[in-house]
Amino acid sequence: MTTTHPGNTRTSLREWATGVTVFAAIMLMIGGILDIMRGIAEIADDDIFVSTRNYVFELNLTAWGWIHLALGVLAFVVSLGLFTASTWARVLGVAIAGLVIISNFLSLPYYPVWSIVMIAISGFIIWALCVVRKDDAFVPFETPTSR
């Protein structure tokens, strides 16, 4: 005789949602740390960045450095909030990842390969934060149910 356990489906959905949220938090933290390092390198006028002429969105390298540094710090702080599965952190995580995509797109001529990598990482972050439904989300410090 076969019996179904509806609790198992809900548990597996919750585990999947928790895993995706933790994935997004770790990726946002890594992306934030990398953006902080990029911002510091740009502020210090490092020689690894290429200066192009006649680019439509022209800012000096120091301005881009401050933009990337600020976005990196915000991404790192929001990633800490994602570990508690709070809704505000998910919303801000999508917004910060979107801003990181825009800033890296605009700074493509200065460091093209790295900008494309950061755009891809931010795309995965947005996907991971948007795919989880609220009712499937992880509730921190959940008490196990007795069976």
List keywords for this structure.
147 residues, mainly alpha
Textual characterization of the structure:
The protein has helices spanning 6-43, 61-82, 87-106, 112-131. Helix content is 68%, strand content 0%. It is elongated, with a radius of gyration of 19 Å. It is mainly alpha-helical and 147 residues long. The model has no long low-confidence stretch (mean pLDDT 78). The longest helix has 38 residues, at 6-43. α1 packs antiparallel against α2 (61-82) and α3 (87-106) runs antiparallel to α4 (112-131).
Write the layout of secondary structure elements.
Blueprint: H1 6-43, H2 61-82, H3 87-106, H4 112-131
Quick description:
With 147 residues, the protein is mainly α. It is built from four helices and no strands.
